[in-house]
Amino acid sequence: MKISAELHRSVIALLFAATAHAAGLEAVRISPNGKSFVLAESGKPLRVWGVNYDHDSHGENGRLLEDYWDAEWETVRSDFQEMKELGANVVRVHLQLGKFMSTADVPNEKALGQLRRLLALAEETGLYLDITGLGCYHKADTPAWYDAMDETARWAVQARFWSAVAKTCRESNAVFCYDLMNEPIIGGSKDDGWLSGELGGYSFVQRLTLEPGKRTQIEIAKAWVDKLTAAIRAEDRGHMITVGVIPWAMVWANAKPIFYSPEVSGALDFVSIHLYPNKGEVEKALAALEVYKIGKPLVIEETFPLSCTVEEMDVFLKRSKSRTEGYVSFYWGRTSSEYAAATDKKMAAALIGGWLDYFKKQAEFMKQP
After folding, report:
1. Three-state SS across the chain?
2. What residues make up the domain containing 160?
3. Residue 243, domain CATH
4. 305-350 pLDDT per residue, tens
């Protein structure tokens, strides 16, 4: 018997809902006072203590999730169990646009199928997903047709990406949020290109426009956020939306938020910033948080002792806890014991392994309101 595509999707949605219920996962929502996160049914508070699962540790720079989740699904399953054992409750995954859009108009159904598997795995493991989209982290994998587009056409593809992802994810309680893009920036010219520099072989930062014209940064940000959130809300009215940004107040003391300005932030449910304290500058990092107090929950969606000691990170986390609703650090496919046994990059391995031990030790305390 041939089953229609719509009936097939309905069956999948019901299976997701049943699995989530069996695992005890409740949907996460904004609290009635608008300042924290709660579980939708019980009303219990939820604080984020999570990890970015952005790449693994294989090779010089590691592999992105889409590089191995087809052939090595058991690796993904094992990683999710390890993240759960670390005490994480949220996993941030980074989806690459070039893997999820076959053409400008057609989503990649195979990739969406793998996303369904990831949702089911998250539900089974009892972890929530922070789904960050529109990645072009491997510059060589960015479709030529996408790079050649102007702003209007590019934004339209981005909206179709989010429409397809939201339609796939809307029935799953494992979705913590949709993060529109990792660290978007505004401004630049055609000579600059859409991607801004590389870090460790990855292009994490994208420009929203190459032709700002007479528009202000606020006007550009608002138009982009409104377009993409509208695409998501047309398919999914329940799950939260955010955008992870660089807190420029860490660089310039008087820098004001753009995406979390009053004009732009209305469509966003909570604030996400990426903050790495510098050595000797815990106070400066704490001051940067104050800029993002806009009456919505604040999550530090990326943090790690990259430029400071673990002891300084501990001070920062303990002192900032009352000002945030959680933190998302990093997990790269190895446990602390595997880092301890590593024969490659021993200094980095010791740092990361020690951090994972600290992360696990602090999990219960940091998840408490």
Report:
1. CCCCHHHHHHHHHHHHHHHHHHHCCCCEEECCCCCCEEECCCCCECCEEEEECCECCCCCCCCEHHHHCCCCHHHHHHHHHHHHHCCCCEEEEEEEHHHHECCCCCECHHHHHHHHHHHHHHHHHCCEEEEEEEECCCHHHCCHHHHCCCHHHHHHHHHHHHHHHHHHHCCCCCEEEEEEEECEECCCCCCCCCECCCECCECCCEECCCCCCCCCHHHHHHHHHHHHHHHHHCCCCCCEEEEEECCHHHCCCCCCCCCCCCCCHHHCCCEEEECCCECCCHHHHHHHHHCCCCCCCEEEEECCCCECCHHHHHHHHHHHHHHCCEEEEECCCCCHHHHHCCCCCHHHHHHHHHHHHHHHHHHHHHHCC
2. 5-367
3. 3.20.20.80
4. 999 999 999 999 999 999 999 999 999 999 999 999 887 777 888 9
